[in-house]
């Protein structure tokens, strides 16, 4: 089988490529150039897809004896991921750019090019598993990335391979070291790859500009002014610009964002609790919508935010009722619905949260 491996320059994709070679496949490695400033280097674990990462990926490919190429997807990445990220914050939403990158770049644009070039499958270093074409959580729960892959369609999953999802991260590093791969001890990247400084508010402010509004309490009393709703997320406690706690002596949190009126509402911790979610544009990994109410678990963040739930497909939306409240749920986030299974929880559906209460 001809397999294209997405090589980010990290340890995970390096071992994924090595395992594909060991399996006897005809393997080619590709690094995606996603930055319009390719000279930018990562700083420790911040940022990715830099010139340094491309060099590391090339050196791993040399060790494995496979062809290696760099594909320029910078323009598409800007339009489909970065601009989408900025626009969502300007609307008062909280998006996940890793979800959008997998949905629109790696398993759409990149996979389409791979198929056009005659490859049979796309392999990545994501921590997730496939069984019978169904997406499941990885063996290592701390590294599981099924959440950010839950936007893949049944057709995309049929041509996807996740070679390391059955192995804990510590064993992946040990395997890379045994193979003599330069990436064995390389720090994991974190934060948002296109914001290597880690200062999301400054990044957004430079692109959205000043859009002044008010911070208000539940009664509508103005407590402070702000320079734009993009500086806030649901559940935020610090940096609200207000003096001290609420009248009850308890901290105040962002409980609502209205971009149309540039209003940020704050309230108590309990005000953040939600038990019902509505998700737009649902994706069902089996290729078919849920048939009636289904018992399972809902997850609203890449790491954490999990609750038992019942989900159903109603009027084109994914409706989710939680058995226990979750806090800090924002529109724009992705809700992923799982069916618990002893062999690894199975992803059934995902959607972009459009309402939570």
TrEMBL record:
<feature type="region of interest" description="Interaction with tRNA">
    <location>
        <begin position="143"/>
        <end position="145"/>
    </location>
</feature>
<feature type="binding site">
    <location>
        <position position="32"/>
    </location>
    <ligand>
        <name>ATP</name>
    </ligand>
</feature>
<dbReference type="Pfam" id="PF03054">
    <property type="entry name" value="tRNA_Me_trans"/>
</dbReference>
<dbReference type="GO" id="GO:0005737">
    <property type="term" value="C:cytoplasm"/>
</dbReference>
<dbReference type="InterPro" id="IPR014729">
    <property type="entry name" value="Rossmann-like_a/b/a_fold"/>
</dbReference>
<keyword id="KW-0819">tRNA processing</keyword>
<dbReference type="GO" id="GO:0103016">
    <property type="term" value="F:tRNA-uridine 2-sulfurtransferase activity"/>
</dbReference>
<protein>
    <recommendedName>
        <fullName>tRNA-specific 2-thiouridylase MnmA</fullName>
        <ecNumber>2.8.1.13</ecNumber>
    </recommendedName>
</protein>
<dbReference type="Pfam" id="PF20258">
    <property type="entry name" value="tRNA_Me_trans_C"/>
</dbReference>
<comment type="function">
    <text>Catalyzes the 2-thiolation of uridine at the wobble position (U34) of tRNA, leading to the formation of s(2)U34.</text>
</comment>
<comment type="similarity">
    <text>Belongs to the MnmA/TRMU family.</text>
</comment>
<dbReference type="InterPro" id="IPR046885">
    <property type="entry name" value="MnmA-like_C"/>
</dbReference>
<keyword id="KW-0808">Transferase</keyword>
<keyword id="KW-0489">Methyltransferase</keyword>
<dbReference type="InterPro" id="IPR023382">
    <property type="entry name" value="MnmA-like_central_sf"/>
</dbReference>
<feature type="active site" description="Cysteine persulfide intermediate">
    <location>
        <position position="193"/>
    </location>
</feature>
<dbReference type="Pfam" id="PF20259">
    <property type="entry name" value="tRNA_Me_trans_M"/>
</dbReference>
<dbReference type="GO" id="GO:0002143">
    <property type="term" value="P:tRNA wobble position uridine thiolation"/>
</dbReference>
<dbReference type="GO" id="GO:0008168">
    <property type="term" value="F:methyltransferase activity"/>
</dbReference>
<keyword id="KW-0963">Cytoplasm</keyword>
<dbReference type="InterPro" id="IPR004506">
    <property type="entry name" value="MnmA-like"/>
</dbReference>
<keyword id="KW-0547">Nucleotide-binding</keyword>
<keyword id="KW-0694">RNA-binding</keyword>
<feature type="binding site">
    <location>
        <begin position="6"/>
        <end position="13"/>
    </location>
    <ligand>
        <name>ATP</name>
    </ligand>
</feature>
<feature type="site" description="Interaction with tRNA">
    <location>
        <position position="126"/>
    </location>
</feature>
<keyword id="KW-0067">ATP-binding</keyword>
<keyword id="KW-1015">Disulfide bond</keyword>
<feature type="active site" description="Nucleophile">
    <location>
        <position position="101"/>
    </location>
</feature>
<dbReference type="GO" id="GO:0005524">
    <property type="term" value="F:ATP binding"/>
</dbReference>
<feature type="site" description="Interaction with tRNA">
    <location>
        <position position="333"/>
    </location>
</feature>
<feature type="binding site">
    <location>
        <position position="125"/>
    </location>
    <ligand>
        <name>ATP</name>
    </ligand>
</feature>
<keyword id="KW-0820">tRNA-binding</keyword>
<dbReference type="InterPro" id="IPR046884">
    <property type="entry name" value="MnmA-like_central"/>
</dbReference>
<dbReference type="GO" id="GO:0032259">
    <property type="term" value="P:methylation"/>
</dbReference>
<dbReference type="GO" id="GO:0000049">
    <property type="term" value="F:tRNA binding"/>
</dbReference>
């Amino acid at each position: 089988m001809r397999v294209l491996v997405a090589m980010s320059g990290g340890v995970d994709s390096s071992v994924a490529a090595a395992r594909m070679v060991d399996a006897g496949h005809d393997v080619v490695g590709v690094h995606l150039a996603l930055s319009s400033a390719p000279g930018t280097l990562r700083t420790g674990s911040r940022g990715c897809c830099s010139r340094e990462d491309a060099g590391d990926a090339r050196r791993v490919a040399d060790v494995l004896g496979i062809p290696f190429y760099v594909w320029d997807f910078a323009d598409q990445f800007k339009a489909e991921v970065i601009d989408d990220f900025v626009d969502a914050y300007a609307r008062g939403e909280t998006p996940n750019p890793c979800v959008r990158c997998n949905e629109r770049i790696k398993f759409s644009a990149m996979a389409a090019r791979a198929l056009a070039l005659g490859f049979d499958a796309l392999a990545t270093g994501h921590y997730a598993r496939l069984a019978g074409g169904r997406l499941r959580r990885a063996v290592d729960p701390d590294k599981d990335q099924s959440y950010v892959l839950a936007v893949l369609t049944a057709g995309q999953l049929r041509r996807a391979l996740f070679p390391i999802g059955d192995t804990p991260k510590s064993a992946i590093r040990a395997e890379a070291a045994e193979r003599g791969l330069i990436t064995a001890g390389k720090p994991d990247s974190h934060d948002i790859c296109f914001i290597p400084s880690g200062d999301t508010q400054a990044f957004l402010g430079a692109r959205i500009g000043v859009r002044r509004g008010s911070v208000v309490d539940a009664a509508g009393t103005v407590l402070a002014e702000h320079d734009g709703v993009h500086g806030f997320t649901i559940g935020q406690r610090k940096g609200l610009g207000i003096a001290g706690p609420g009248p009850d002596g308890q901290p105040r949190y962002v409980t609502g964002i209205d971009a149309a009126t540039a209003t940020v509402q704050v309230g108590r911790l309990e005000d953040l609790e939600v038990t019902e979610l509505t998700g737009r544009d649902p994706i069902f990994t089996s290729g078919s919508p849920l048939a009636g109410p289904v018992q399972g678990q809902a997850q609203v963040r890449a790491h954490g935010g999990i609750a038992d739930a019942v989900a159903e497909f109603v009027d084109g939306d994914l409706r989710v009722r939680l058995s226990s409240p979750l806090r800090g749920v924002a529109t724009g986030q992705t809700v992923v619905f799982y069916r618990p299974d002893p062999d690894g929880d199975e992803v059934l559906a995902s959607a972009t949260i459009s309402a939570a209460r």
